[in-house]
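Onboarding guide, step 5: your first structure request.
Type a short instruction followed by the sequence, for example:

Predict the 3D structure of this protein.
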Amino acid sequence: MTYSIAEAARRTGLSIDTLRYYERIELIDPPARDTGGRRTYSEDDIGWLGFLTKLRTTGMPIRLMREYAKLRRGGPATASRRKQILVEQRRDVLERIAELQGSLDVLNYKITNYEQIEKDMAGLLAAPQEAAS
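The system replies with structure tokens like these:
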């Protein structure tokens, strides 16, 4: 099955401009063309775009994504370097997750603190009314 550029954009969550940009900077191979000269994307293309999106979500720089894409075209002989890129990116992601977890812990602490303050204030406000009864 093949997809138009608009359908590929919808399926991947990328804009049409981003798809064209990825083609221009050689993150993706030029897609096939239909008889009218319009780009068509295969299931494999959609899968590769999904992977690129994940790499981007991890914060991988475009420069490194381009290196990875170029290596991918080199086939199995480049597997070691591609693995190295992913291992290094995983390390960076794990560091960011730990940093975010620390930030989340602080937020949770502060929220719990404010919930206790609200509870204490509600008790204080209810106490004078009970005394007046």
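Each response can be followed by summary notes, for example: The chain has two domains: 1-73, 79-133.
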